[in-house]
């Protein structure tokens, strides 16, 4: 399991390893699950309060299904750790964050300085994505 | 013959491997035999070229002729703007690509 | 037209800084080409046949003289003295250098322009009607809605890694001047029975390998749900669009494979959910944008007569000019298709000339059309003759709008690394064959479109006559299609039969036109005659 390189939470990292969605739906005691691009995040909706950690795998950063999975989970009220794993690249860090990810475990460690610059790149945002940031249109109209 | 072509990273222009370095002129292209991939790996690694690949060509009376029309247009420039090609003074230059 | 506020300006400036950093990391080797390619594409930077190519966004085809002047200056400063206007209302520069591209983007940002998302698997430039704000037949100016969608789609974090590119068009008239139904999402602003404006959504149109006409999936989306509904359409696509095969990855394939009803059901379900998430801008935002698209101060009582005694001027007015909604004004199209020229290309001097004319005579506004021409939307009739004379002296006065001389052609194998055949020489030969004004007048409306490969950037499926370049064992070959149309009566062209070489396709076009001239009745256009008599007479003439 790759280490979490960036984490924006105050609580402890989950102890249990993440199981697949199929395995999770079979078990009653797993608290961590990993979503693959082809999984439907909505399958997890009945179990969100049981989950401490949801990993979303990006086998290739250009396969963007994980972004929708993340938003779907946050929109449904998931407040646990939402961790991006796999091909996590510098240039998508801020977008991942906006979609609800609060932990990042890239398979290849990222340059810390470049990553921090990337997280802080955008002072303003055009869209409301549920991450708590005020969209530009909201700032314009108070 | 097997020749190598690619592009200059910073400027983007088309280049051909002449045996020692990358040249703008297809007539300088060297026959790399079966060493093409190895040369590409080394040269791309050193960032002296990018998007490089091996193509077929033949040597004829005029110089080196890539086998495919696309590569011949790459070697010359846009046939509809002779002034922007590598042979701006030659009114028949675009016949060579056909 | 839209003016950036501090937020918009900061967004483009931030993007320049981000890209400058990405170029630095590419040049110092920290980013490989495989890693860098998707990033540069999201800033419109391609590697083409001869060099890097930069595609600059011209949002819904609208720009002012200051912006147009800079586009000309960029051609001189960073390129080789010209630019190419595209079938999506953008401009392309064919010879930029990677290390200078951040500076180009910085120059663009200084006049509120950019190259954001003009390539890559993301939402691209939103196109619209080139007569917006001037046409007599629009119910409302479509551009404020396009601007609202532009901001929503820019750097949208969920939709930057879609299965494939995504193209949206917005119109507001029954006459479709933007090929709206041939887009991934086509939006037509309409009025309901109560006179309220809303958005009609067509999803799943497109050209390329498998051309399809987008079906209507929602008759009316209220204005205060426009963004939410669009988001639902995109989310369903992002989640379920195919990612296993690049040639089956557009939304048109998803809509086709699910069926319109099932795709619609999924969108409506997602939409109902998203309505609870507060992602819609307030209507005040739309009003703020609309306020920038009010009519310019048209002169009341401007002279509505035109002196057409100069026959060349009369021809240009009849061919290239359209009725304006305000008396005394006219909409003028500048043809970038001189006889034998390269369709859509303009020199830096020509670009700056058009900028100056627009500033003086069109309330400082220009449009780029998806037919690769330029429009002055608001010319006072009293100024028109002077405008035409100036254009004509600069080689911009060709009177051929929507005739066989007004050819749409992609750059083709002369420029594009995806192409199988050259398209520009074919366009030039056809243009010369039918160069005379008399011949063009005799033929009338004829939209001829040429693509150098199946990606169809020349929109050949939507041509009354379409030409598709293919590679036949290393030799350029051309297929002929007939009967396509991009208007409200959208239809896809049909292949006539075996292909032709370069001289052969020019002769085939002439043959097809001769069949039309022989068969036509009652003022029919080429398209009308084809639809009435069918393929048979054409096939017979071409191949027997």
Structural description of this entry:
The complex is a heterotrimer of chains A (142), B (98) and C (544). The mean pLDDT of chain A is 95. In chain A, 25% of the residues lie in helices and 17% in strands. Chain A has 142 residues and is of the alpha/beta class. In chain A, α1 (21-26) links the parallel β2 and β3. The longest helix of chain A has 11 residues, at 65-75. Chain B is α+β, with helices and mostly antiparallel strands. Chain B has one domain (2-97). Helix content of chain B is 18%, strand content 28%. Chain B has helices at residues 36-45, 69-76, and strands spanning 2-7, 14-17, 22-23, 50-60, 63-66. With 544 residues, chain C is α+β, with helices and mostly antiparallel strands. Chain C folds into 4 domains: 6-109, Alpha-Beta Complex (Sulfite Reductase Hemoprotein, domain 2); 134-290, Sulfite Reductase Hemoprotein, domain 1 (2-Layer Sandwich), CATH 3.30.413.10; 312-393, Alpha-Beta Plaits, CATH 3.30.70.3340; 408-543, Sulfite Reductase Hemoprotein, domain 1, CATH 3.30.413. Helix content of chain C is 37%, strand content 17%. In chain C, α3 packs antiparallel against α11, α15 (502-519) packs across α16 and α15 (502-519) crosses α17. The model of chain C has no long low-confidence stretch (mean pLDDT 97). The chains are: A alpha/beta (142), B alpha+beta (98), C alpha+beta (544). The interface between A and C is large, with 39 and 40 residues.
Strand order of the largest sheet of chain A: 1-6-5-4-3-2
Helix content of chain A: 25-40%
* Largest sheet composition of chain A: 6 strands, mixed
- Total DSSP E strands of chain A: 6
Q: Secondary-structure element sequence of chain A? A: EEHEEHEHEHH
Query: Please, what is the average pLDDT of chain A?
Result: 95
First and last CA, distance of chain A: 45 Å
Radius of gyration of CA atoms of chain A, rounded to a whole number: 15 Å
Largest interface: A-C, 39 and 40 residues
Shape of chain C: globular
Shape of chain A: globular
CATH architecture of chain A: 3-Layer(aba) Sandwich
Query: What's the CATH architecture name of the largest domain in chain C?
Result: 2-Layer Sandwich
Count of distinct strands of chain C:
20
How would you classify the helix and strand content of chain A by structural class? alpha/beta
Across the major sheet of chain C, the strand order is: 1-2-5-4-13
CATH topology of the largest domain in chain C: Sulfite Reductase Hemoprotein, domain 1
CATH C-level category of chain A? Alpha Beta
The CATH homologous superfamily of the largest domain in chain C is named Sulfite Reductase Hemoprotein, domain 1
Portion of residues in beta strands of chain A equals 15-25%
Q: Name the assembly state.
A: heterotrimer
